[in-house]
Amino acid sequence: MKNHLLFAFKTFKESLYPMTLLNRKQTLSFIKMHKIFYQRIGISIVVITLFAGVSNAQTYNAAYVKALYAKYPTEKSDFCDGCRIWVNPYYTSIADTVKGFPVCEKAVVTAADVADQEAANIDRSGVFAKWNITQGEPRFDQLYTYINKQINKPLTIYEIVYGHCALAWVLSARNRNGAIFSNTQVYGEFGEYQGQNIGTMIATEDTTRLLLGATLNKVKHIPVTDSVKIWAGCISSDTSKVYSFKGRSITIPDVVWKIIKFNDQTVCYWMPNEVSESQAMLIHRHISYGCLIVKLGFDPEKVIP
User: Fold this and answer.
1) pTM of the full structure
2) Which secondary structure element, helix H or strand E, spans residue 211, and what is its range?
3) CB environment 288-302: b (16+ within 10 A), e (fewer)
């Protein structure tokens, strides 16, 4: 392409001299001929440029997702017998792979991330909506389907859904890889009652977004802080419900805890995983940091600094 452009420029430059030897009619004909030639060159450049852009565009499909996860394998964690740790560019999660939920997860979200997410405006469909697994882990899709058949209350607050733990999809989808990693079974989600999913949990997520200057209900908010640190995890007990199907099991946690730190403030939540946990209940789910550590038996900031 470069040679073609040099040739075109050289041809144009060298063709100027003969014009001094032409009469008016011949000169007008000469100019018209060259105008058509360079218009065609210009069109070719545009077409080739567009074609190159299309050919270099990334295709986001199942093969891409598989290759992406292969770059970030999980490792054994000493936190519990069945625990593994997964570190990716968007969050770090220690998950109990026997129970099927995160026990301690950390993410940092900035005001710039929120601005990027709103600018990217990624459509939550296809691979950007599908739930994925880390390399070597079993899928839980059939198990979730089985659970909700047992509950038999479809499309209600009683359903068990994939519930994001520390990092909501909208807080992670600042780019396409973030959107994909947000929907990761076991490490990024837990078996959550839909009542809590659209209740106290989404209320904490909206709180984080507001702090970072997100647009909610078509209103653009002024950021209160440049960044928010989030820790979250799940707690179960001997009385927690356990569902098994085709050799795979998950435990439905009793409680989800969350810490939100920004500026010099720390806000903690202790949220029961129940269908009655509406957004209005969040004000009743505050807990002090010290009390949270006592209940957990560990300090999340020391587990994942």
Assistant:
1) 0.81
2) helix 202-211
3) eeeebeeebeeebbe
The answer to whether residues 248 and 192 touch, using CB atoms and an 8 Å cutoff, is: no
Do residues 88 and 187 make contact, with C-beta atoms less than 8 angstroms apart?
no
- What gap in Å lies between CA 105 and CA 232, rounded to an integer? 5
pLDDT at res. 29: 55
CA–CA separation, 194 and 155 (whole Å): 9
Spell out, as residue ranges, where the chain has pLDDT lower than 50.
1-24, 27-28, 30-31, 34-38, 40-55
* Residue 224 · residue 207 · CB < 8 Å: no
**Predicted local distance difference test score (pLDDT) of residue 57:** 82
User: 121, 170 in Cβ contact below 8 A?
Assistant: no
What pLDDT does 48 receive? Answer: 40
Backbone angles phi, psi at 114, to 5 degrees: -65, -40
Helices and strands, counts by H and E, the chain: 11, 14
Classify 236 as helix, strand or coil: coil
For residue 63, the SS3 value is helix
**Which of 276, 271, 128 lies closest to 195, judged by CA?**
276
Q: What is the four-CA torsion angle of 292, 297, 302, 305, rounded to 10 degrees?
A: -60
Are 243 and 146 in contact, with CB atoms under 8 Å apart? Answer: yes
Residue 101: strand pairing partners: 96
Q: What is the pLDDT of residues 286-304, one digit of tens each?
A: 999 999 999 999 999 999 9
Please give the C-alpha separations between residue 123 and each of 32, 120, 171, 173, in angstroms, as whole numbers.
48, 9, 14, 10
* Cβ density class 176-194: b for 16+ within 10 Å, e for less: bbbbbbbbbbbbbbbbbbb
Q: How far apart are CA 177 and CA 169, in angstroms?
A: 11
Task: Look at residue 262 in the predicted model and tell me its pLDDT.
Answer: 98
